[in-house]
Structures are given as structure tokens and as C-alpha cells.
Write a sequence for this structure.
């Protein structure tokens, strides 16, 4: 009986060693890709005088554009490529009509270049936005979604 207990312990120990050995991957196989830059929020307002944007210059990467309509009638906003380098296609996104005193947002992943934000029916031309070199990665940032 004592021999059976010793044998059972050896089998358990071998099983535990096999289990621990199988619980990992070769570190050389894991590619630790950098995270994208943290998203920033860019604010815009449609007024009777035109379209205002803040900030008007920032680095490339993910952007949430929040637009408020401060006029008396519903207006759509169009964000589009004005001038962009490279062979990649441009950007053109339009919101549905934004009610007076309402807001809408656009999720964008921007490359370096110049963009225009226009509002349908606004008295003045739209705003010009300049996007520079990519922002730094959010790899070392904690508490990001």
C-alpha cells in the first residue's frame, strides 16, 4: 500500500510538471505591437458666422470630432480631405442633420494632411484643420480603454 502511495505521488508530480511546462508560449513568437495613439476630442461649433474648430492643429491618429449646432435651424456637417499626401484615398464623412442646440460626433482616424469642416447652409466657409505627424503611441499609458 505504501508503494502505491509513492507511485501516485510520482504520477501527480509528473502531471504537474507537464501542466506547468504547457502553460506558456515561446517569448520569441509573441509580437508586442505598439498601441495606437490615444484618441483625442476635437470640438466644433456651427454658428451664424461659420464653423469654429478647436484645436485646429494636432497630430495624426484617432480623433472624436464633437460638433454642436448653435444656429436656429438643422444643419449637416461634412468633414473631408482638402489636401493629403500619398496614394491613399481621401476622407469624406457627413453627419445627419443636427438639430438646433444639438450635437453630433464623428469617429475619425486621420493621416497627416489638410482637412475641411463645412456646415450645409452656413453663411461663411468652413474651417481648415491641419493634421501633422502621428502622435506618439499609447503603449505605456495606463487606464485607457
Amino acid at each position: 500500500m505504501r508503494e502505491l502511495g509513492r507511485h501516485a505521488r510520482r504520477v501527480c508530480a509528473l502531471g504537474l510538471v507537464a501542466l506547468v511546462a504547457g502553460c506558456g508560449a515561446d517569448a520569441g513568437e509573441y509580437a508586442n505591437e505598439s498601441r495606437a495613439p490615444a484618441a483625442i476630442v476635437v470640438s466644433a461649433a456651427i454658428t451664424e458666422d461659420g464653423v469654429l474648430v478647436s484645436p485646429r492643429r494636432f497630430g495624426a491618429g484617432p480623433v472624436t470630432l464633437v460638433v454642436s449646432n448653435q444656429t436656429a435651424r438643422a444643419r449637416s456637417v461634412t468633414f473631408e480631405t482638402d489636401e493629403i499626401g500619398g496614394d491613399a484615398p481621401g476622407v469624406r464623412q457627413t453627419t445627419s442633420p443636427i438639430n438646433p442646440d444639438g450635437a453630433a460626433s464623428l469617429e475619425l482616424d486621420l493621416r497627416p494632411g489638410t482637412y475641411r469642416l463645412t456646415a450645409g447652409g452656413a453663411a461663411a466657409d468652413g474651417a481648415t484643420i491641419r493634421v501633422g505627424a502621428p502622435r506618439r503611441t499609447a503603449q505605456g499609458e495606463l487606464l485607457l480603454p
User: Anything to note?
Assistant: The chain is about 15% helix and 40% strand. The mean pLDDT is 83.
